[in-house]
TrEMBL record:
Keywords assigned: Acyltransferase, Amino-acid biosynthesis, Cytoplasm, Methionine biosynthesis, Transferase
UniProt subcellular location: Cytoplasm
Protein name: Homoserine O-succinyltransferase
Residues the record lists as binding substrate: R226, D354
Any single Gene Ontology cellular-component annotation: cytoplasm
Species name: Onishia taeanensis
Annotated catalysed reactions: L-homoserine + succinyl-CoA = O-succinyl-L-homoserine + CoA
Known EC number: 2.3.1.46
Length: 383
């Protein structure tokens, strides 16, 4: 049984918030009611000034830190950065992490029952956008008694949500941390997402999204989608140092698994295909594709950022070719043109896009410094 470290938030339990107020969505449809699953770490102070919202990436969820039981071998996905004495210090901050609408880890999504039909939502679940998620998160904040977040933080797709928070609710966010993200996807990124979606949709077991009613899963399609995605999350250097051209066995001159990297990708795909919902994957990747706050402003990102009022931290990683540093600098330049306070760090890391999940020393130092500033600005005890 693994021992809980002194800097762990410990054993945590998911919580559920149900909302009966309809939520109007960007796609023109309305969710009549919905449920959000979330976790919290730390304690909300009497003034309600120490709350931090964690926004998850494509395959993320509400379990960001701690463990669900004492013998749980795997902590939350951002446990390296959340806990007593860590960058997001739970001795100072009250941390909220949720599973977004459309997710497959408890919040209302394709695996939920459609109240109008009595059957699973499945492919009928309405299309989600980053703005929809932010509006639902704001309602959760209301429910928790949080008028203003000390900081909203996220990496990758989570970073897009942070940007949207600063635009949609500028009075409710005091600081923003945008990590390994971009103000809009490149054509190449949209292409990768489309290949992944087609892998899922072309699986014979997909059944136009109604696989649940056929008592099956599009495992092959979802496995391929994850394999394609995972390649883009790692740098060539990271993949080379981890696997090189190592063989599992002698050459067989066939199509069986022979190289270690083949074995790794297949394992990742197999595991993911059993734990993630295919319709959710389609929804999440489309939300990535749609995100473009500059579009209503003729492509002028600085004009789009005009409503923002909080200081920003923007972090990129040198070998992230999915969301490369120049895309982060594009956001930084637009913030400067819009006369917004911004700090920027490009972290030298061999780990590619996935570096935002890892405890890189320089990354931790930059992030911890920013969060210490958040604590000072909010006049939190111990800062």
């Amino acid at each position: 049984m693994p021992e809980l470290a002194s800097d762990s938030v410990g054993v945590v339990a998911p919580q559920t918030a149900h909302f009966d107020d309809p939520l109007a969505l960007a796609c023109g449809k309305t969710l009549p009611s919905y449920t959000l699953v979330y976790e919290t770490y730390g304690t909300l102070n009497a003034e309600g000034t120490n709350a931090v919202l964690i926004c998850h990436a494509l395959s993320g969820h509400h379990h960001a830190a701690g463990r669900h039981h004492e013998d749980d071998r795997k902590p939350g996905w951002w446990d390296a950065h959340i806990g007593p004495g860590k960058s997001i210090d739970t001795n100072r901050f009250f941390v909220v992490s949720l599973n977004n609408l459309g997710g497959c880890h408890g919040s209302t999504g394709p695996l939920s029952i459609n109240p109008d039909t009595g059957r699973l939502w499945g492919p009928d679940f309405p299309m989600m956008t980053v703005s929809d998620w932010v509006h639902s998160q704001a309602r959760l904040a209301d429910r928790l008694g949080i008028e203003r977040f000390a900081a909203v933080v996220g990496g990758s797709l989570g970073g897009m949500q942070v940007m949207q928070w600063a635009l949609d609710y500028p009075e409710r966010i005091a600081h923003a941390a945008v990590i390994a993200a971009t103000p809009r996807l490149s054509a190449q990124n949209i292409a990768f997402n489309e290949v992944a979606r087609q892998a899922i949709r072309s699986d014979p077991d997909f059944h136009d999204g109604w696989y649940g009613e056929h008592d099956t899963l599009p495992r092959r399609g979802l496995k391929l989608a994850r394999m394609v995605g995972h390649i883009t999350y790692l740098s060539e250097a990271a993949m080379g140092s981890k696997f090189g051209r190592d063989l599992r066995q002698d050459l067989g001159y066939g199509y069986d698994v022979e190289f270690q990297v083949e074995s790794y990708l297949r394992h990742q795909g197999d595991t993911f295909s059993e734990s993630f919902d295919a319709n959710t994957y389609l929804l999440m990747t489309k939300a990535l594709d749609y995100f473009d706050p500059a579009a209503p402003h003729g492509g002028d990102l600085a004009a789009a950022l005009a409503p923002a009022k909080c200081p920003f931290l923007v972090v990129s990683f040198s070998t992230d070719w999915r969301f490369p540093p120049w895309r982060s600098r594009e956001l930084v330049d637009a913030l400067v043109r819009a006369d917004k306070p911004v700090s920027y760090a490009n972290i030298d890391s061999p780990h590619g896009h996935d570096a935002f999940l890892l405890p890189e020393p320089r990354y931790q130092a930059v992030f911890a410094g920013f969060m210490a500033r958040v604590a000072r600005d909010q006049q939190l005890e111990g800062s």
